[in-house]
Amino acid sequence: MEIYFLEYKVRHGDTLSSIAARLNITVEELKLFHNSHCQRINRIWFENLNEVKMVFVPLQVQTEKQKDQKKKNTLPSSQLSNSFFAKTYNVTETFENPFESVLTIDYTVDIHLRKDKSTNHHIISYNQNHFRTHGETPEDKISGLSISCMKSIMPIDFTLNDSGKIIGFTDHGKITKDFAEQRKDLDFFAGEISERYMDKFEKNIADEKFFLHQLQSTLLFQVLFPKLEWFHKKTEWTESFYFLQNSFSVPCHMEIEQENEDQDHITTTLTGSYTEFYSLQELRTGTKYNEPVDDPVSGNIIIEYTTHKKNRNLVQASATISLWREEEVIQKHTLTITQG
């Protein structure tokens, strides 16, 4: 908001257009500036300045191009930089539906981003740890086995493109090798069920395309690794998201809103609703039936990013994915990510 201004004395022949042209701003900008500084009785509504004796004009004027550049300099770069991510984030996920108790999971994510000089790609080492369910260490056998299996292959190295999205594993062979070597150390999970689980886990991670899709279709990966161009959108656009893990991505009509949260931070909110009709069964099985849907479900996604204006790094993120049939919410998944 401009705070330095003067009272311009209207001369014969002046119009809002002529005054605005001398200031290199639009008529609408001049009108809004004047009306925001004058008393209600002196507001200007027409370009004609008959009976108007003075107009409040700004002394320091920024062009739209200058305003855009100033805003751009407070947002994360559209090209990935080593400073975008913090080293550690605390994550909370909550899953809700009408038929089961609310499930809350907490864990930490450690990130190390570097540039591979030989390929000029960004490599990110990703590690998850300190899992809690409803604030407690999971005590059931399957949860413990699941966590132990994932820990055995961490950290995982991914290759990111310039816009910040994961495009593949840096060394998929290392993932399968790490699990094969450490599986024998998981023998305290004795029993046929545990053996079948580990067989399935090993098979899943061995399928590079399938395992990458498993990770990329999580809400965490979709939010934590955004397309950095999102922060610079000015108009509505279409973006595809996974509403359920291991399903297919759904095109959404997206809108963006940005506001200065405080002196140091800016908040970017993305809101999307999917534009095609699918049944809940299609989304859960990950299979499109390609026929008219009798009981379509609607869905929307809201993602909010808080970034630092000076450092332009990710301070916090939150997201909500909702599915509902008619007016009944049938599934809700929320996520919060904060710097550790």
The helical percent reads: 25-40%
Succession of helices and strands: EHHEHEEEHEEHHHHEEEEHEEE
- The quaternary structure here is single chain
CATH topology of the largest domain: Lipovitellin-phosvitin complex, beta-sheet shell regions
Q: Mean pLDDT, nearest integer? A: 91
Helix and strand content put the structural class at: alpha+beta
User: Can you count the beta strands?
Assistant: 14
Largest sheet: number of strands, sense, barrel closure: 12 strands, antiparallel
Number of domains: 2
Alpha-carbon Rg, integer: 27 Å
Shape: elongated
Query: Under the CATH scheme, which class of the largest domain?
Result: Mainly Beta
Task: Give the number of helices.
Answer: 9
Based on the coordinates given, report the CATH architecture of the largest domain.
Roll
Query: Uncertain runs with pLDDT below 50, 5 residues or more?
Result: none
Strand content: 35-45%
Distance between the termini: 34 Å
Structure overview:
The model has no long low-confidence stretch (mean pLDDT 91). The protein starts with a strand and ends with a strand. It is built from nine helices and 14 strands. A hairpin with a 6-residue loop joins strand 4 (100-115) and strand 5 (122-133). Strands 3, 4, 5, 6, 7, 8, 9, 10, 11, 12, 13 and 14 form a twelve-stranded antiparallel beta sheet that branches. Strands 1-2 form a two-stranded antiparallel sheet. It has helices at 16-23, 27-37, 64-72, 141-152, 172-182, 192-206, 208-216, 219-224, 280-285; strands spanning 5-9, 54-58, 88-97, 100-115, 122-133, 156-160, 166-169, 237-242, 249-260, 265-274, 278-279, 296-308, 314-325, 328-339. With 340 residues, the protein is of the alpha+beta class. Helix 1 crosses helix 2 and helix 4 packs parallel to helix 6 (192-206). It folds into two domains: 5-61, LysM domain (Membrane-bound Lytic Murein Transglycosylase D, Chain A); 88-339, Lipovitellin-phosvitin complex, beta-sheet shell regions (Roll), CATH 2.30.230. Helix content is 26%, strand content 36%.
